[in-house]
Design a protein that fits this description.
Layout: E1 2-6, H1 13-24, E2 27-30, H2 31-41, H3 44-55, H4 61-71, E3 81-84, H5 90-102, E4 109-114, H6 117-125, E5 127-130, E6 136-138, E7 158-159, H7 166-180, H8 182-189, E8 193-197, H9 202-217
Bound molecules: adenosine-5'-diphosphate (2 copies) and zinc ion.
């Protein structure tokens, strides 16, 4: 199935997408992860994206649509995928509609994760990630089970994102409200939108998400 997770930075999209990839075998496509990989690899796209990402702005529609267009044509996406962090603007949503149409695919459901702004800042400033396998954690809300050891792969190395600071978060939130929030209306009008309570605990959000996906798959 084809699913979009929609929500502000820090809403829990990546956390839930990682779990769904494991429990339901759905391929997770995170444009944020792909762009960070491009920055690290020093590609042309990475060079263009780097400064914009550091400032909390949005990378151009053209770049991200191209990345997604290439990625969803790979064999592992044939049975479906879950988009985390894409689309983020109306032109990206329209671009995705076109790509899916060209490939004879249909979007099943868009899940909006609703979270209060004050909670978002707390979530983002406490976020860290395993440097080896990419599993996401939080200082308070999702600590590693054993101190400084990744639950998934046992690594002791972790990273924090350069843009996960209180200052940049404000620009990212502004970009969300200006550019991304209109997608809620766009997908509602198409009859694709389902909203869940992203303020609940991680397990409860996962339960709600599974209920929505089961209904969409039925
Ligand atoms: P997004 O991908 O939407 O930006 P993440 O999934 O990375 O968000 O979550 C942001 C931070 O909040 C992470 O550190 C994560 O561990 C934590 N988090 C995710 N979901 C919840 C939740 N329901 N309650 C508390 N903290 C959460
Ligand atoms: P978060 O969910 O915490 O906002 P992401 O990892 O999804 O973080 O995105 C990090 C940054 O990458 C964004 O602030 C933006 O600069 C860039 N980015 C990711 N996805 C897109 C997209 N679809 N369109 C434009 N920029 C994007
Ligand atoms: Zn790990």
């Amino acid at each position: 199935m084809i699913v979009i997770l929609l929500g502000p930075p820090g809403a829990g999209k990546g956390t839930q997408a990682q779990t769904l990839a494991k429990t339901r075998g759905i391929v997770q496509l995170s444009t944020g992860d792909m762009l960070r990989a491009a920055v690290k690899a020093g590609t042309d796209v990475g060079r263009q994206a780097d400064t914009i990402m550091k400032s909390g702005g949005l990378v151009s529609d053209e770049i991200v649509i191209r990345i997604i267009s290439d990625r969803i044509q790979e064999p592992d996406c044939a049975k479906g995928f879950l988009l985390d962090g894409f689309p983020r603007t109306l032109p990206q949503a329209v671009g995705l509609d076109k790509l899916l149409e060209q490939q004879g695919k249909t979007l099943d459901v868009v899940v909006e994760m609703k979270v209060d702004d004050t909670a978002l800042i707390e979530r983002i400033t406490g976020r860290f990630t395993c440097a080896k396998c990419g599993t996401g954690y939080h200082d308070t809300f999702k600590p590693t089970k054993a101190k400084d050891t990744c639950d998934s792969c046992g690594s002791h190395e972790f990273t924090r994102r350069a843009d996960d600071n209180a200052e940049t978060v404000k620009s990212r939130l502004m970009a969300y409200y200006r550019e991304t929030a209109p997608l809620i209306g766009y997908y509602f009008a198409k009859g694709k939108l389902k909203s869940i309570d992203g303020m609940a605990q991680i397990d409860e959000v996962e339960r709600q998400l599974n209920t929505v996906l089961d209904a969409a798959a039925a």
